[in-house]
Design goal:
The chain is about 60% helix and about 10% strand. The chain is mainly alpha-helical. A three-stranded antiparallel β-sheet has the order 1-3-2. Strand 2 and strand 3 form a beta hairpin. Helix 1 packs antiparallel against helix 5 and helix 2 crosses helix 5. The longest helix is centred in the last third of the chain and has 32 residues. It is globular and about 55 Å long.
Length: about 150
């Protein structure tokens, strides 16, 4: 499954009314908060000795819906990357001792990804820090999101 850089179609919606100044301010604040969170995330990953993309991949594998095994195509979709780019990322994760490739017992042609203990340790530290940061900005996000629902 090749992932594209385009947002999911469900994310592209048009509103019938003309945005107000308050709408522009809410959207601007929302994007600002997202950018601040992403900057925090990138710095936290680097402090843990990972690249931001490595952190994203580890989180996508560990947080895959249902907690089941993740194939490279599934990871590509979750990261919104092309399949070959994801293969290269998985190669680097494997070389770093963060991910293991295992054959799917139900289909020997399919390769599944599993986090190593080293990756799980890094991810636990990063996830705790990210949850703390989300708790800190949660009131601001709620304020912006409640404004958008009016």
């Amino acid at each position: 499954m090749a992932a594209s850089k385009n947002p999911p179609k469900s994310a592209v919606r048009t509103r019938k009314r003309v945005p107000s100044q308050a709408d522009y301010e809410a959207l601007s604040q929302f994007r600002y908060l997202i950018r601040c969170f992403l900057e925090f995330s990138q710095e936290a990953a680097k402090a843990e000795g990972l690249t931001p993309r490595q952190h994203q991949a580890l989180l996508a594998i560990r947080g895959y819906p249902g907690g089941g095994p993740v194939a490279i195509g599934d990871l590509a979709e979750r990261l919104r990357l092309r399949h070959h780019t994801t293969v290269e990322l998985v190669d680097r994760l494997s070389e770093a001792g963060l991910v293991e490739r295992v054959l799917d017992p139900a289909d020997q042609r399919r390769v599944l990804l599993k986090l190593t203990g080293l990756a799980a340790g890094h991810l636990a530290k990063l996830s705790a820090a990210h949850l703390d940061e989300l708790s800190r900005i949660e009131p601001l996000l709620k304020q912006v999101l409640s404004r958008q629902s009016e």
